[in-house]
Amino acid sequence: MTQAALGTAERPLRVAVIGSGPSGFYAAEHLLNTDAVVAEVDMFDRLPTPFGLVRGGVAPDHQKIKSVTKMYDKIASHPRFRFFGNVEIGSDIAVEDLRAYFHAIVYAVGAKADRRMGVPREHLPGSHSATDFVGWYNAHPDFRHLRFDLTGETALVVGNGNVAMDVARILAAPPEYLEKTDIATHALDALRESRIREVIIMGRRGPAQAAFTTKELREFGEIDGVDIIVAPDEIALDPLTEAHIEAHADRTRDANISVMRVFSERTPAGGGRRVHLRFLASPVEVVGTDRVTAVVVEKNALQRASDGQLRPRGTGDTETIPVDLVFRAIGYQGTPLPGVPFDDWAGLIPNVAGRVVDPSREGAPVVGEYAVGWIKRGPQGVIGTNKPDSVETAHAVLEDVAEGLLDREVPSGEVLSRFVAERRDDAVAYDDWLTLDGLERSAGEAEGRPRVKFASITDMSNALRAARTGDA
Ligand code: NAP
Fold it and tell me: Does the pTM exceed 0.90?
């Protein structure tokens, strides 16, 4: 008897997606909905909860952005989709083991590490990475134990991306603002007591080179009790920038500059909380003995680099700014997955249009392995950026199926389920997540919030056990 072709109903293409953030869901969607093959997608996540940075990164006051998860619920309802939460690939199950069970593996693991400033005393108490703070206020179980000393008055946020804006907004916002969000309860309690009243956002380049988007900038002008302070000389443009603006159109940049000009003309309402925008300055030293007491910053000037970009150069002029907290929000970085090629310099899985390649074998493709999202292209772009990115990778999978490259025998989905259960008897299915989701939402309803998040895996497991036995 001849064997059915790979990717038919008799012999579905078995795909593992590692990571359940937007890029993983978009890859799954394309593979499940294509007419080219019949695929079964098993998605793994080390947490019992799906959605990656939509749950653990997007700010709690950005509920509209989070509504994208309705789409992911729809993808997850496909009969050939399964979710294995609470299962860590690389520790609970080795990639090597997984390779035996799937025709294709799609890495959608994101970029969870933070970058360092590389300045003296960066690790003093009071100096933190934005990734830690974001994880903490978003109830990510890895970060719930962290403590941020909010008894001082001034915080410095280093970086000019949207993460810096999120961190600054959450630090500056009054409790009444945060109380309406799904911020972690432990963070809400701590921020209610916070004495932080001044937040400085510092960019190493100028206002025209800021990476944040206009919506995030405008928000500072819309929070009751918060004044946004932009000194006119901070946003004066240097001649190189003027020439660059002349030569290169950029709507976000232009809109940002307009909004900052409006802010610079505002009279502060005196609500007691202030966010200051500072530009062309870089911390060169954190000051303190037991904890942060100040930062020394060096004034920068812009110079044109060989690639035409304007880059910062220290001028030697320094200033010491007393601060109680420092948050570095200068970008994320990928971390290696054991057994998978990794480019240490770029902080991502080396790939060509989504196909993983192995630099130790002269860049030969690792057949059947693919990357999507931040671990594919680096930590840039908003949620929507992942859609075309994941479609490109899904096309690479389909091309490889068509070429016959992935055609080999693998065990069925039932066999895989038994294997996972042997390794993790507390793996979480999508229906379990929907139970947790329902519990979080109803707890939120009682408090007039979108949801009250579980912040610990033990609490999630206990809640699921109670729901299964009818004790919920
Ligand atoms: P980002 O947008 O890449 O911004 C990083 C910032 O850090 C840049 O301003 C960069 O300045 C600065 N920086 C890098 N190294 C530095 C150093 N050594 N000293 C001082 N400053 C330094 O990264 P992100 O803020 O982490 O955000 C990651 C991605 O997620 C972005 O695409 C972002 O838009 C997205 N995101 C979106 C939202 C939203 O839509 N609301 C929220 C959060 C994140 P240079 O430009 O000079 O390199």
Answer: yes
